[in-house]
Amino acid sequence: MSNENMQDNENIQDLQDVAAEGVATPAVDEQLTAVIAELDKARQDVLYAKAEMENVRRRAAEENDKARKFAVEKFARELLSVKDALEMAQLDNTGNFEALKMGMDLTHKALVSAFEKFELTDIAPAVGDKLDPHLHQAISMEPSEQEANTVVRILQKGSALAGRVLRPAMVIVAAPK
């Protein structure tokens, strides 16, 4: 407790003692009124600080909700052009296979570009790579001339978002000899 608070507590005690003895004077009444006013102001300051902290907490929770809700907004905007291109391809009744293939290639490039923009990368091990349990999921083992626990076949590429694995690559690995 600070010296100022200790002094205030002693003054309050002295004033209470004087009031209890019944010898209150106008000066004592004036001092009591001043102390009561000071205590009331301190109480109001505490209530104000408490309300302000509650408002800060509420605003932070709202900001957090908005950030979570709209975190994928830019990514979704990038994917809209891919969706539009796929829908246009579905409406094409010309039967021109080359035009369809070219459209699919362009759509694929747009999708890959959107993925790159947002650091969504492929996990694509090569045949012969050592199995990395952090990046690969071994589905099965098969006899092979390769070293044990090396990738023999890739069943499905994996994906990582900003270096964090979303889906490991599914692979078949060489069985021990």
Write the layout of secondary structure elements.
Elements: H1 3-21, H2 26-69, H3 73-91, H4 97-117, E1 120-123, E2 136-142, E3 151-156, E4 158-161, E5 164-167, E6 169-174
Helix pairs in contact: 1-2, 3-4
Helical amount:
55-70%
Please work out how many helical segments DSSP would assign.
Answer: 4
Give the total of beta strands: 6
Which strand-content bin applies to the residues? 15-25%
Anisotropy-based shape: elongated
Class of secondary structure makeup: alpha+beta
What is the total domain count?
A: 3
Instruction: Give the biggest beta sheet.
Output: 3 strands, antiparallel
Q: What is the multimeric organization of the chains shown? A: single chain
- Low-pLDDT windows of residues: none
Supply the key terms.
alpha+beta, 3 domains, Nucleotide Exchange Factor Grpe, Chain A, domain 2, single chain, 18% strand
Question: How does this structure look, described?
Answer:
With 177 residues, the chain is of the alpha+beta class. It folds into 3 domains: 3-69; 74-113; 119-177, Nucleotide Exchange Factor Grpe, Chain A, domain 2. The protein has 4 helices and 6 strands. The strands form 2 sheets. It has a 3-stranded antiparallel β-sheet with strand order 1-4-5. The radius of gyration is 37 Å and the shape is elongated.
